[in-house]
From TrEMBL:
Its cofactor is Mg(2+). This is Dihydrofolate synthase/folylpolyglutamate synthase. One of its GO terms (cellular component) is cytoplasm. Residues 304-409 form the Mur ligase C-terminal domain. The lineage of its organism: Bacteria, Pseudomonadati, Pseudomonadota, Alphaproteobacteria, Acetobacterales. GO terms for biological process: folic acid biosynthetic process; tetrahydrofolate biosynthetic process. Keywords: ATP-binding, Folate biosynthesis, Ligase, Magnesium, Metal-binding, Nucleotide-binding. Residues 45-185 form the Mur ligase central domain. Functions in two distinct reactions of the de novo folate biosynthetic pathway. Catalyzes the addition of a glutamate residue to dihydropteroate (7,8-dihydropteroate or H2Pte) to form dihydrofolate (7,8-dihydrofolate monoglutamate or H2Pte-Glu). Also catalyzes successive additions of L-glutamate to tetrahydrofolate or 10-formyltetrahydrofolate or 5,10-methylenetetrahydrofolate, leading to folylpolyglutamate derivatives.
Length: 421
């Protein structure tokens, strides 16, 4: 028996991959003895973009402070075990199998989604392994996400809200912000990363109803890039010069500042905050690949990069990061899911005018065909062609430019990391 076999069985417990509701989760947790009531102090993190990076900074900060830190993130890139980190270590195979089978037996034949039953397994793991902190990342939305059964987290965090998952969360920023604000709890403080005005208004209104104190970017803490890193300031406090974030891209300063604001509320020491910001690791977020068979396809002096951002907001952040690099011929190797806004994604790169090579994400039922992605890029004003597979796409891109960015999907990023060794 392997965890992959158990996980495959669990995908068959519900006809839909996503069906937002708390009822099934509450039923299963009751049968399991309510492990969600016996967790370490929880930092609950929602948002459209930047959740994973913010969790990565907070984990690195907590560990630099000597804390035992659990973390729950999704989706995984290569192996499911990446989702459940116990006091700094990925969950091992034997423990994962045992927990998944325990949840499977408790659930019986009742309908439950894959994310719900695996989140229940994660809660069991977190409840049974001592730690000082649990970083809990929302899977989708917030209000009806399986992680939102935690009645009283220690702290909530909402990273930037933008348009994504419209088929589940709503068609405009206000509707999506309302779903994210669903993680706020009465009297529980919340750190709010930079937001569009309409999103911030919705979040603030929900916080008022709950008497949840807000610590808001741009109001309660400020940040600005410097040559060495960034300047962080709070009203009435001396400015603090923090190191350059370990994760690349100008947008990471906002994520690191949000993590710093949260860490200060946790009373974590300044040296640990500095060390965590400078040392956090999080793959497929503007990551340069330096070895492996895909890198070997690049010309001498060429660069191969990887980014898993998959919506227009993430594409704009990626485009800004690329624009800040030295000028050289740029090619995007892009795969997208059929549920994503391809026109909005490619529109973010119009001013950079990269060439585009598209690929169908292998092994994903919801993958958009490469030919359709190429047509969307052309419609956005870019030059694009479709490739039959990932290696062919990278080889073709390497003939067109010396900086190749594989982008468009975390699922594509996971395949890249697996194939590139």
């Amino acid at each position: 028996m392997t965890s992959d076999l158990v996980l495959e069985r669990l995908t068959r417990l519900h006809p839909k991959k996503i069906d937002l509701s708390l009822g099934r989760m509450e039923r299963l947790l009751a049968r399991l003895g309510h492990p969600e009531r016996d967790l370490p102090p929880v930092i609950h993190v929602a948002g459209t973009n930047g959740k994973g990076s913010t969790v990565a900074y907070l984990r690195a900060i907590g560990e630099a402070a000597g804390l035992r830190v659990h973390a729950y993130t999704s989706p995984h890139l290569v192996r499911f075990h990446e989702r459940i980190r116990l006091a700094g270590q990925l969950i091992d195979e034997a423990a994962l199998i045992a927990l998944l089978e325990e949840c499977e037996r408790a659930n019986g034949e009742a309908p439950i989604t894959f994310f719900e039953v695996t989140t229940a397994a994660a809660f069991l793991a977190f409840a049974r392994n001592p730690a000082d902190l649990l970083l809990l990342e929302v899977g989708l939305g917030g209000r009806l996400d399986a992680t939102n059964v935690v009645a009283r987290p220690h702290l909530s965090v909402i990273t930037p809200v933008d348009l994504d998952h419209r088929e589940f969360l709503g068609d405009d920023i206000k509707a999506i912000a309302a779903e994210k604000a669903g993680i706020l709890k009465p009297d529980v403080p919340a750190v709010i990363g930079p937001q569009p005005a309409e999103a911030l208004g919705v979040i603030a209104a929900q916080a008022d109803l709950l008497d949840a104190p807000l610590i808001i970017a741009g109001i309660d803490f400020q940040y600005a890039a410097t040559d060495e890193g960034f300047r962080f300031a709070r009203p009435g406090q001396p400015a603090w010069h923090l190191p350059r974030p370990s994760l690349a891209g100008p947008h990471q300063i906002a994520n690191a500042a949000t993590a710093a604001a949260a860490a200060l509320l946790l009373d974590l020491p300044a040296p640990a905050i500095e060390a965590g910001i400078a040392g956090a690791q999080w793959p497929a977020r503007l990551q340069r690949l330096k070895t492996g068979p895909l890198v070997a396809l690049m010309p001498a002096g060429g660069e191969l990069w990887l980014d898993g951002g998959h919506n227009p907001h993430a594409a704009r952040a990626l485009a800004a990061a690329l624009a800040a690099m030295d000028a050289r011929p740029l090619v995007l190797v892009t795969g997208l899911l059929s549920t994503k806004d391809a026109a909005g994604y490619f529109g973010a790169f119009r001013d950079l005018a990269p060439k585009v090579v598209t690929v169908t994400i292998p092994g994903e039922a919801a993958a958009r065909p490469a030919e359709e992605i190429a047509a969307a890029a052309i419609e956005a004003g870019l030059s694009a062609t479709a490739a039959p597979d990932l290696a062919s796409a990278v080889a073709q891109a390497a003939r067109l430019g010396t900086r190749v960015m594989i982008c468009g999907s975390l699922y594509l990023a996971g395949r890249v990391l697996a194939d590139n060794g």
